[in-house]
Amino acid sequence: AIGVVTTAPITDATPAATYAHTPFRGWQSDIDMPAQAVAQGCIDIARQLVEGEATPEVVLGAGLAYLKPEADGGRRKDGRDLVEAWRRRGGASTVVSDLPELTASTTPRLMGLFSNGALPADADRAPDSATPRLPDMTAAAIRALSQNPEGYLLVVEGAQIDSYHHANDPRRALAAVAEFSQAVDAARRLTDPADTLIIVTADHSHSLVLTAGSDRKAPLLGLAGADGAPNKALDDAPYPTLIYGTGPSPTRPQAVARADGSSDADALRSVAVPLSSAGHAGEDVPVYADGPQAYLVRGVIEPTYVFQLIRRALSL
Ligand SMILES: [Zn+2]
Questions:
Q1: Rounded distance from Cα 204 to ligand 1 centre (Å)
Q2: Ligand 1 centre from 84 Cα, in Å?
Q3: Contact present, 47 and 101 (Cβ < 8 Å)
Q4: Is 200:297 a contact under the CB 8 Å cutoff?
Q5: Of 52-56, 135-139, 285-289, 309-313, which range is least confident?
Q6: Could you tell me which of 2, 112, 111 has the C-alpha nearest to residue 54?
Q7: pTM of the model
Q8: Ligand 1 mean position to 174 CA, how many Å?
Q9: In angstroms, what is the span from residue 187 Cα to ligand 1's centroid?
Q10: Fewer beta carbons within 10 angstroms: which end of the chain, N or C?
Q11: Contact at 8 Å (CB) between 48 and 21?
Q12: At what angle do helices 170-190 and 134-145 cross, to 10 degrees?
């Protein structure tokens, strides 16, 4: 069985790589397709979720609009309702629309797309919100997929770590890291390392740098420097604990600490090079693994090696 879980639209690049083949990540629904590509037989990513070689049994995340017709609040002009098409394709299936329905689901096939675009940031989520979080979706996916006696592949993406770093928003990006960590924890609790390989990695980093050195009292989202006395740069200006190499922030923090000693966490960020969206960075990223064949993850490896590890673990 195959499952895909994300906080982004289910047709976004990482989840799409689980079930679709396309030369361009932007071809997410029929209205995104150039006429020439259609004439050559290319189909949009959302349709491949239902019509592709590997239709996932579990689909949880966001991006409902890419699957629904315009008449039903979606983006599609071809009239297709791909949620209904997915439901008709297999056996016992559930389509859920909120957290209580997700938690109550017991079928081996499960779909839930909880927003037309991306899910709301975990940092902004109300405690009583009915929108599932990444750990909720991960747990529900494992409950559904583990009903298959032949095993499963589950891809879980903490998508908003990347999207909020693009916006130079460390508060929301770091909350998304914590949410992803809780999803890994849920997966570890619900599986047995004797029979389940868990691999945790990133496809790239961002240019976030900690400037406060070993100063453990420095507020992460405030100014570098302890006990209310900010560190000063050579131009005598205070600087934030966190800075980005590139992105939409100013090259100096817009707001420093207020007179009452508080600070505007969202404004305390700065960049070396202003860009409309922060660029990905190029250094090595970690790969963690536990379970059967986890010993094959060590040293410096190429990204495509991870694909080979997954294929080997599934005996494909
Ligand atoms: Zn990105």
A1: 8
A2: 31
A3: no
A4: no
A5: 52-56
A6: 2
A7: 0.93
A8: 15
A9: 25
A10: C
A11: yes
A12: 30
Q: Say which CATH class 2-191 falls into.
A: alpha beta
CA 184-145-124 angle, 5° bins: 40
79 contacts 29 by C-beta, under 8 angstroms: no
Q: What is the pLDDT of residues 273-307, one digit of tens each?
A: 989 999 999 999 999 999 999 999 999 999 999 99
- Please compute the mean of the pLDDT values over residues 260-279 and round it to a whole number: 73
Helices (H) and strands (E) in the chain, counts: 9, 12
Mean per-residue pLDDT for 33-47? Answer: 96
**Domain locations in the chain?**
2-191, 206-280
Q: For residue 77, how far is its CA from the centre of ligand 1 (angstroms)? A: 28
| Rounded distance from Cα 167 to ligand 1 centre (Å) | 10
C-alpha 250 to ligand 1 mean position (Å): 20
**Å from CA of 297 to ligand 1 middle:** 24
Distance between Cα 281 and ligand 1 center (Å): 10
Classify the phi-psi angles of 285: left when phi > 0, otherwise alpha if psi is within -120 to 50, otherwise beta. Answer: beta
